[in-house]
Amino acid sequence: MMTNINVLTPVQIEHLSSLRYINAIDEHMRIVAGVKVLDNAGQYDNSVLLVLDIFIDDNHIDTMSFNLHNYAYEEIVALAQGIRNNDYILRAVDTALAGDNE
Questions:
Q1: Which of 8, 37, 75, 76 is the most exposed place for a label (fewest CB within 10 A)?
Q2: 72 burial level (CB within 10 Å; 0-12, 13-18, 19+)
Q3: Which domain of life is it from (predicted)?
């Protein structure tokens, strides 16, 4: 039988689904990170989305999501808490916002 060390338990899924982290990026931008565990996640397949609500000066500007397929519970929490330190996500946010301004 195949097992996956990154399978989320029901308790972890419930906890992840309730998380909301406010990440202050600079004096104007805030990114609220949440986690959505998709209903179609199979027993050996973590289908998880990191959902980011982007605010500038308290105005909701955009929503983005990133697939965290088979990330471990601890990795998901750390990523949601540390958006400010994740260059990949910050570049994606900058690119998306630059596209909105054109």
A1: 75
A2: middle
A3: Bacteria
First to last CA, the chain: 52
Which string of DSSP letters, residue by residue, matches 13-65? HHHHHH-EEEEE-SSSEEEEEEEEE-TT--TT---EEEEEEEEETTEEEEEEE
Cα angle, residue 29 at apex, residues 99 and 49 outer, rounded to 5° = 70
- The whole-angstrom separation of Cα 94 and Cα 20 is 21
pLDDT digits 0-9 by tens, 40-72: 545 545 688 999 999 999 999 999 999 998 889
CB-CB contact of 23 with 33 (8 Å):
yes
Tokens of 21: 């982290």
DSSP helix/strand/coil, 66:
strand
SS3 at position 71:
coil
| Cα–Cα dist 50/65, whole Å | 5
